[in-house]
Amino acid sequence: MDIVVSVISLLLVLVLIARGVPGRNLLVVLAVALAVVVLVVGIERAGLWPESFHTR
């Protein structure tokens, strides 16, 4: 269930970012946003995320 919520949240953020960007820059913005999300998820999965940021 957590993965479904994460994917929906990611798609919502990408759509909201994409709405305010002109056409040519859209792919660059989406690529950067996706890279940031992948980086954060990777850091969290590796156990390097600060404990104070965990909500559980």
Write the layout of secondary structure elements.
Layout: H1 2-19, H2 23-45
Helix pairs in contact: 1-2
Structure, explained:
Helix content is 73%, strand content 0%. It is built from two helices and no strands. The chain is elongated, with a radius of gyration of 13 Å. The chain is mostly helical. The longest helix has 23 residues, at 23-45.
Task: Compose a concise summary of this entry.
The chain has helices at 2-19, 23-45. By secondary structure, it is mainly α. The chain starts with a helix and ends in an 11-residue tail after the last helix.
Proportion of beta-strand residues: under 5%
Helix/strand order, N-terminal first: HH
**Total of DSSP H or I helical runs spanning 4+ residues:** 2
Secondary structure category: mainly alpha
Helix content: over 70%
Give the N-to-C terminal Cα separation. Answer: 15 Å
Main beta-sheet annotation? none
Shape: elongated
Calculate Rg over CA atoms: 13 Å
- Low-confidence segments, given as residue ranges, are none
- Overall pLDDT: 76
Number of strands: 0
Overview features:
single chain; 56 residues; mainly alpha; 73% helix; elongated
